[in-house]
Amino acid sequence: MNSRVTMGLAAVLLLGAVFVGYWGLVLSRQPAPVAEAPAAPNVTVEKTVAIAEDQTRQPVVVLLHDVPPFTPLSAADVTVEKLRSAPAGSLSSVDQAVGRTPWRHLSAGTWLNDESFSAGGSLARMIHSDERALTVAVDEVISAAGQLLPGDYVDVLLYLRQDGSNLQQSAQIVLPAMRVLGVGDQYGLTNDGQPASPALSADEKIKQDQRRIAARTVVLAVPEQLLSRMMLATQVGTLRLAVRSSEEQRLAKYWAGESQAPGHIDNANSQLFQFTQLALGAAPKVPSSGGSGTVARPAVEIIRGNQITQQTP
Protein backbone atom coordinates (compact mmCIF):
# COMPACT_ATOMS: atom_id res chain seq x y z
CA MET A 1 0.00 0.00 0.00
CA ASN A 2 1.19 3.48 -0.75
CA SER A 3 2.65 5.29 2.22
CA ARG A 4 0.60 8.39 1.49
CA VAL A 5 -2.66 6.45 1.67
CA THR A 6 -1.57 4.93 4.96
CA MET A 7 -0.77 8.34 6.42
CA GLY A 8 -4.14 9.70 5.24
CA LEU A 9 -6.05 6.86 6.90
CA ALA A 10 -4.08 7.42 10.12
CA ALA A 11 -4.94 11.09 10.09
CA VAL A 12 -8.66 10.34 9.59
CA LEU A 13 -8.66 7.81 12.42
CA LEU A 14 -6.87 10.32 14.69
CA LEU A 15 -9.44 13.02 13.96
CA GLY A 16 -12.26 10.52 14.60
CA ALA A 17 -10.75 9.54 17.92
CA VAL A 18 -10.42 13.19 18.96
CA PHE A 19 -14.05 13.87 17.96
CA VAL A 20 -15.40 10.86 19.83
CA GLY A 21 -13.42 11.78 22.95
CA TYR A 22 -14.66 15.36 22.86
CA TRP A 23 -18.26 14.24 22.37
CA GLY A 24 -17.99 11.86 25.30
CA LEU A 25 -16.64 14.65 27.51
CA VAL A 26 -19.54 16.94 26.57
CA LEU A 27 -22.13 14.26 27.33
CA SER A 28 -20.55 13.50 30.73
CA ARG A 29 -20.82 17.19 31.79
CA GLN A 30 -24.55 17.57 31.00
CA PRO A 31 -26.86 17.24 34.13
CA ALA A 32 -29.13 14.26 34.21
CA PRO A 33 -32.68 15.44 33.41
CA VAL A 34 -34.21 12.64 35.50
CA ALA A 35 -32.80 14.02 38.81
CA GLU A 36 -34.81 17.28 38.61
CA ALA A 37 -38.15 15.64 38.00
CA PRO A 38 -39.10 14.79 41.67
CA ALA A 39 -38.34 18.35 42.92
CA ALA A 40 -41.50 19.87 41.46
CA PRO A 41 -44.02 17.77 43.50
CA ASN A 42 -42.08 18.37 46.77
CA VAL A 43 -42.11 22.14 46.32
CA THR A 44 -45.83 22.09 45.60
CA VAL A 45 -46.62 20.04 48.72
CA GLU A 46 -44.54 22.31 50.94
CA LYS A 47 -46.27 25.41 49.59
CA THR A 48 -49.69 23.82 50.11
CA VAL A 49 -48.90 22.88 53.70
CA ALA A 50 -47.53 26.36 54.43
CA ILE A 51 -50.64 28.02 53.01
CA ALA A 52 -52.97 25.72 54.98
CA GLU A 53 -51.03 26.29 58.21
CA ASP A 54 -51.03 30.06 57.70
CA GLN A 55 -54.82 30.05 57.36
CA THR A 56 -55.21 28.34 60.75
CA ARG A 57 -53.01 30.86 62.59
CA GLN A 58 -54.60 33.80 64.39
CA PRO A 59 -53.40 37.44 64.26
CA VAL A 60 -52.05 39.00 67.46
CA VAL A 61 -50.87 42.60 67.91
CA VAL A 62 -47.30 42.70 69.32
CA LEU A 63 -45.04 45.60 70.29
CA LEU A 64 -41.96 46.13 68.12
CA HIS A 65 -39.97 47.99 70.81
CA ASP A 66 -40.22 49.20 74.41
CA VAL A 67 -42.92 51.79 75.04
CA PRO A 68 -42.75 54.13 78.06
CA PRO A 69 -45.91 54.84 80.07
CA PHE A 70 -48.35 57.60 79.05
CA THR A 71 -47.15 57.50 75.43
CA PRO A 72 -49.82 57.00 72.75
CA LEU A 73 -49.07 54.11 70.40
CA SER A 74 -48.49 54.71 66.71
CA ALA A 75 -48.53 52.34 63.76
CA ALA A 76 -44.72 52.18 63.90
CA ASP A 77 -44.85 50.77 67.45
CA VAL A 78 -46.85 47.63 66.71
CA THR A 79 -47.08 44.79 64.24
CA VAL A 80 -49.30 41.77 63.69
CA GLU A 81 -47.92 38.27 64.16
CA LYS A 82 -49.81 35.10 63.41
CA LEU A 83 -49.76 32.53 66.20
CA ARG A 84 -51.15 29.03 66.33
CA SER A 85 -53.21 29.98 69.39
CA ALA A 86 -53.97 33.58 70.28
CA PRO A 87 -53.89 34.56 73.98
CA ALA A 88 -57.30 35.21 75.47
CA GLY A 89 -58.39 38.82 75.01
CA SER A 90 -55.48 39.76 72.75
CA LEU A 91 -55.91 42.46 70.09
CA SER A 92 -56.08 41.21 66.51
CA SER A 93 -55.63 44.34 64.39
CA VAL A 94 -53.34 47.37 64.46
CA ASP A 95 -56.31 49.77 64.47
CA GLN A 96 -57.32 48.45 67.90
CA ALA A 97 -54.02 49.62 69.42
CA VAL A 98 -53.06 52.78 67.51
CA GLY A 99 -53.85 55.94 69.49
CA ARG A 100 -54.32 54.18 72.85
CA THR A 101 -52.12 55.14 75.81
CA PRO A 102 -50.58 52.54 78.15
CA TRP A 103 -50.40 53.47 81.84
CA ARG A 104 -47.25 51.45 82.49
CA HIS A 105 -44.03 50.45 80.76
CA LEU A 106 -44.50 47.80 78.06
CA SER A 107 -41.58 45.75 76.77
CA ALA A 108 -40.85 44.79 73.17
CA GLY A 109 -42.52 41.54 72.14
CA THR A 110 -45.47 42.01 74.52
CA TRP A 111 -48.81 41.01 73.04
CA LEU A 112 -51.48 43.62 73.70
CA ASN A 113 -54.94 43.32 75.21
CA ASP A 114 -57.33 45.75 76.91
CA GLU A 115 -55.55 45.35 80.25
CA SER A 116 -52.34 46.66 78.65
CA PHE A 117 -53.96 50.09 78.74
CA SER A 118 -55.41 49.87 82.27
CA ALA A 119 -53.93 51.59 85.33
CA GLY A 120 -52.13 49.85 88.17
CA GLY A 121 -48.75 48.29 88.80
CA SER A 122 -47.83 44.65 88.45
CA LEU A 123 -48.81 43.81 92.05
CA ALA A 124 -52.22 45.46 91.68
CA ARG A 125 -52.79 43.38 88.54
CA MET A 126 -52.07 40.11 90.37
CA ILE A 127 -55.19 40.21 92.57
CA HIS A 128 -58.94 40.46 92.11
CA SER A 129 -61.14 43.28 93.36
CA ASP A 130 -62.09 41.33 96.52
CA GLU A 131 -58.45 40.66 97.48
CA ARG A 132 -55.70 42.73 99.06
CA ALA A 133 -51.92 42.26 98.79
CA LEU A 134 -50.32 42.25 102.24
CA THR A 135 -46.61 41.93 103.02
CA VAL A 136 -45.53 39.69 105.90
CA ALA A 137 -42.09 39.67 107.50
CA VAL A 138 -40.57 36.16 107.50
CA ASP A 139 -37.37 34.31 108.23
CA GLU A 140 -36.05 30.94 107.04
CA VAL A 141 -38.32 29.14 109.56
CA ILE A 142 -41.54 31.05 108.85
CA SER A 143 -41.07 30.85 105.06
CA ALA A 144 -40.63 27.04 104.91
CA ALA A 145 -36.82 27.14 104.78
CA GLY A 146 -36.86 29.58 101.88
CA GLN A 147 -38.65 27.16 99.54
CA LEU A 148 -41.76 29.28 98.97
CA LEU A 149 -42.50 30.24 95.37
CA PRO A 150 -45.02 32.67 93.86
CA GLY A 151 -48.20 30.72 93.18
CA ASP A 152 -47.95 28.48 96.27
CA TYR A 153 -50.83 28.32 98.75
CA VAL A 154 -50.11 28.46 102.47
CA ASP A 155 -51.99 28.24 105.74
CA VAL A 156 -51.12 31.02 108.17
CA LEU A 157 -50.64 29.52 111.64
CA LEU A 158 -50.52 31.62 114.80
CA TYR A 159 -48.94 30.64 118.12
CA LEU A 160 -49.88 32.61 121.22
CA ARG A 161 -47.69 32.22 124.29
CA GLN A 162 -49.07 32.07 127.80
CA ASP A 163 -48.36 35.26 129.72
CA GLY A 164 -50.03 37.78 131.97
CA SER A 165 -52.43 39.00 129.28
CA ASN A 166 -53.01 35.57 127.75
CA LEU A 167 -53.92 32.92 130.29
CA GLN A 168 -53.94 30.04 127.82
CA GLN A 169 -51.41 29.33 125.09
CA SER A 170 -52.76 28.20 121.73
CA ALA A 171 -51.77 27.31 118.18
CA GLN A 172 -54.34 27.63 115.43
CA ILE A 173 -54.86 28.30 111.74
CA VAL A 174 -56.06 31.88 111.50
CA LEU A 175 -56.02 32.15 107.69
CA PRO A 176 -56.34 29.05 105.50
CA ALA A 177 -55.20 28.82 101.87
CA MET A 178 -53.57 32.17 101.22
CA ARG A 179 -51.99 32.61 97.78
CA VAL A 180 -48.34 33.68 97.63
CA LEU A 181 -47.93 36.60 95.24
CA GLY A 182 -44.24 37.22 95.70
CA VAL A 183 -41.19 36.21 97.68
CA GLY A 184 -38.61 38.96 98.06
CA ASP A 185 -38.28 40.61 94.64
CA GLN A 186 -39.62 37.59 92.73
CA TYR A 187 -43.28 37.73 91.68
CA GLY A 188 -45.60 35.45 89.74
CA LEU A 189 -48.06 36.12 86.92
CA THR A 190 -50.49 39.00 86.59
CA ASN A 191 -54.17 38.43 85.88
CA ASP A 192 -53.53 38.70 82.13
CA GLY A 193 -51.03 35.83 82.26
CA GLN A 194 -47.95 38.01 81.84
CA PRO A 195 -44.90 37.69 84.13
CA ALA A 196 -44.90 40.46 86.73
CA SER A 197 -41.09 40.46 86.74
CA PRO A 198 -39.06 41.08 83.55
CA ALA A 199 -37.37 38.20 81.79
CA LEU A 200 -33.92 37.42 83.17
CA SER A 201 -30.83 35.78 81.80
CA ALA A 202 -29.55 32.49 83.20
CA ASP A 203 -27.03 34.22 85.49
CA GLU A 204 -29.60 36.75 86.72
CA LYS A 205 -32.07 33.92 87.36
CA ILE A 206 -29.55 32.15 89.60
CA LYS A 207 -28.93 35.36 91.56
CA GLN A 208 -32.68 35.95 91.92
CA ASP A 209 -33.19 32.41 93.29
CA GLN A 210 -30.46 33.06 95.84
CA ARG A 211 -32.16 36.28 96.92
CA ARG A 212 -35.50 34.48 97.12
CA ILE A 213 -34.11 31.84 99.49
CA ALA A 214 -32.75 34.59 101.75
CA ALA A 215 -35.84 36.82 101.40
CA ARG A 216 -37.29 38.42 104.51
CA THR A 217 -40.69 39.40 103.11
CA VAL A 218 -43.56 37.47 101.54
CA VAL A 219 -46.57 39.07 99.82
CA LEU A 220 -49.89 37.24 100.29
CA ALA A 221 -53.26 37.71 98.57
CA VAL A 222 -55.69 38.11 101.47
CA PRO A 223 -59.49 38.24 101.04
CA GLU A 224 -60.83 41.62 102.06
CA GLN A 225 -63.00 40.07 104.82
CA LEU A 226 -59.92 38.57 106.50
CA LEU A 227 -57.54 41.51 106.11
CA SER A 228 -57.92 42.87 109.66
CA ARG A 229 -57.50 39.38 111.12
CA MET A 230 -54.26 38.93 109.17
CA MET A 231 -52.96 42.28 110.39
CA LEU A 232 -53.85 41.40 113.98
CA ALA A 233 -52.19 37.99 113.73
CA THR A 234 -48.91 39.52 112.57
CA GLN A 235 -48.79 41.69 115.71
CA VAL A 236 -49.89 39.47 118.60
CA GLY A 237 -48.04 36.18 118.17
CA THR A 238 -45.63 34.00 116.24
CA LEU A 239 -46.54 33.15 112.66
CA ARG A 240 -45.76 30.07 110.57
CA LEU A 241 -46.56 29.51 106.90
CA ALA A 242 -47.56 25.91 106.16
CA VAL A 243 -47.37 25.06 102.43
CA ARG A 244 -50.40 23.28 100.97
CA SER A 245 -50.15 20.48 98.43
CA SER A 246 -50.19 21.28 94.72
CA GLU A 247 -52.56 18.33 94.25
CA GLU A 248 -55.38 20.57 95.47
CA GLN A 249 -55.10 22.47 92.17
CA ARG A 250 -56.00 25.72 93.91
CA LEU A 251 -53.97 27.82 91.48
CA ALA A 252 -55.67 26.22 88.48
CA LYS A 253 -59.08 26.88 90.04
CA TYR A 254 -58.10 30.49 90.69
CA TRP A 255 -57.14 31.02 87.05
CA ALA A 256 -60.38 29.31 86.02
CA GLY A 257 -62.27 32.09 87.80
CA GLU A 258 -63.50 30.16 90.81
CA SER A 259 -63.81 32.71 93.62
CA GLN A 260 -63.63 31.95 97.30
CA ALA A 261 -67.14 31.19 98.47
CA PRO A 262 -68.50 33.03 101.54
CA GLY A 263 -69.20 29.64 103.09
CA HIS A 264 -65.47 28.90 103.06
CA ILE A 265 -64.79 32.05 105.09
CA ASP A 266 -67.61 31.21 107.51
CA ASN A 267 -66.11 27.77 107.95
CA ALA A 268 -62.73 29.31 108.76
CA ASN A 269 -64.39 31.57 111.31
CA SER A 270 -66.16 28.68 113.00
CA GLN A 271 -62.90 26.75 113.39
CA LEU A 272 -61.12 29.69 115.01
CA PHE A 273 -60.61 29.10 118.73
CA GLN A 274 -61.50 32.33 120.54
CA PHE A 275 -59.04 34.37 118.49
CA THR A 276 -60.16 37.75 119.84
CA GLN A 277 -59.84 36.77 123.49
CA LEU A 278 -56.57 34.90 123.03
CA ALA A 279 -55.02 37.62 120.91
CA LEU A 280 -56.04 40.59 123.03
CA GLY A 281 -55.87 38.91 126.44
CA ALA A 282 -58.37 36.84 128.43
CA ALA A 283 -61.20 38.90 129.85
CA PRO A 284 -61.48 38.75 133.61
CA LYS A 285 -64.53 36.98 134.91
CA VAL A 286 -67.26 39.19 136.35
CA PRO A 287 -68.19 38.03 139.86
CA SER A 288 -71.79 36.95 140.22
CA SER A 289 -74.04 38.97 142.49
CA GLY A 290 -74.78 37.42 145.90
CA GLY A 291 -78.36 38.72 146.07
CA SER A 292 -80.89 36.19 144.89
CA GLY A 293 -83.35 38.81 143.79
CA THR A 294 -80.86 40.85 141.81
CA VAL A 295 -81.21 40.62 138.04
CA ALA A 296 -77.83 40.41 136.31
CA ARG A 297 -77.29 43.23 133.87
CA PRO A 298 -75.43 42.60 130.62
CA ALA A 299 -71.76 43.49 130.85
CA VAL A 300 -70.24 46.08 128.52
CA GLU A 301 -66.95 45.04 126.88
CA ILE A 302 -64.35 47.82 126.86
CA ILE A 303 -61.18 47.47 124.80
CA ARG A 304 -58.14 49.55 125.74
CA GLY A 305 -55.15 48.72 123.52
CA ASN A 306 -54.53 45.02 124.00
CA GLN A 307 -56.66 44.70 127.13
CA ILE A 308 -60.31 43.75 127.38
CA THR A 309 -62.38 44.57 130.44
CA GLN A 310 -66.05 44.10 131.14
CA GLN A 311 -68.06 46.54 133.21
CA THR A 312 -71.61 46.26 134.40
CA PRO A 313 -73.55 49.48 134.07
TrEMBL record:
<dbReference type="InterPro" id="IPR017592">
    <property type="entry name" value="Pilus_assmbl_Flp-typ_CpaB"/>
</dbReference>
<feature type="domain" description="SAF">
    <location>
        <begin position="58"/>
        <end position="118"/>
    </location>
</feature>
<dbReference type="InterPro" id="IPR013974">
    <property type="entry name" value="SAF"/>
</dbReference>
<dbReference type="Pfam" id="PF08666">
    <property type="entry name" value="SAF"/>
</dbReference>
<dbReference type="Pfam" id="PF16976">
    <property type="entry name" value="RcpC"/>
</dbReference>
<protein>
    <submittedName>
        <fullName>Flp pilus assembly protein CpaB</fullName>
    </submittedName>
</protein>
<dbReference type="InterPro" id="IPR031571">
    <property type="entry name" value="RcpC_dom"/>
</dbReference>
